[in-house]
Amino acid sequence: MNAFIVDTHCDSVKWLAQGVSLRNHPGHLDLTRLNSAVKLQFFAMFVESSYKPQRAMERTLELIDLSLQSMEQNKDVLTMVNTREDLQQLTTAKTCGALLAIEGGEAIIDTYMVRHLFRLGVRSIGLTWNQRNRLADGVLGGSGGLTQLGKKVVKEMNALGILVDAAHMSPKSFWDVLRTSSQPIIVSHANCRALCDHVRNLTDLQIKTLAAQDGVFCLTFAPDFLKENGSTIDDLLDHIAYAADLIGPEHIGIGSDFDGVDSLPEGLKGVEDYYKIYQGLEQRGFSESECQAISGGNVRKLLMRILPKEVGKS
After folding, report:
1. What Gene3D superfamilies does the database record attribute to this sequence (predicted)?
2. Residue 314 resides in a domain
């Protein structure tokens, strides 16, 4: 397997907040295993409910600071990706790329905060977690959509070169984002509602419309999103194959949710098992180029379109 693997979601920053190094630890992902398995990892800054809403920005800044410190301490295996040039250099680099992502926009009360987050290196923002905030309704937070501030934030992200992530959003919020964004978006970690009727999964219409606007649908390893009672790696492959039949392999990616779930599908223990997904796709008849596109090529292509060419310039 020789693929540029991109994982659009992990929650491993939580270990840093608990005083645990990312270098080596027993979770789903650590830097030692990551560097031999993945070429670009999105690291989510998830703000726990106890900090919302009053201390959301404080906690977000703390998590970003911990992440930046960890990257500096581990720069022999990890390189921060801020620009298209950074992404291009990963192709020949011996390190894994790290992209800072926000999961839930509770910290954002004005567009100037988006600009500050950009300056700190944030390159992907999920506007909601499950609940409602100032930007939009989450999947469990009501039936509303993007607020006026939410629309301004999406447009600011487009202008700066920050990827818009519609995971966790209510259906109306999802559609509002597609109507508002001038750039393609991603859904960083979800699966197919047709195969598993979970509220966080996308309907066929959502998946088709996301793809029609050149977005990327990133499938996740969360067991509850794969099958109602128990799941295996084959169930994950079923979701990938179903989505590929629906929209083609050129709009599919992977967002594991490593360290954000209590368990993984049978057959997956952690980031060291990524090769099994690639092999499983090959065994199901996907070509080498299709496997490479799904494993990371599609997200990489989108980032080359979205990210600024250099810091401060689009």
Report:
1. Metal-dependent hydrolases
2. no
Among the listed residues 265, 263, 290, 287, the one whose alpha carbon sits nearest the alpha carbon of residue 276: 265
Give the rounded distance of the alpha carbon of 179 from its chain centre: 21
> Which tens digits make up the pLDDT trace of 53-85?
899 999 999 999 999 999 999 999 999 999 999
The whole model's pTM is what? 0.96
In a domain, 311, yes or no: no
Strand partners, 313: 310
Domain assignment present for 312: no
Tell me how many domains the chain contains.
1
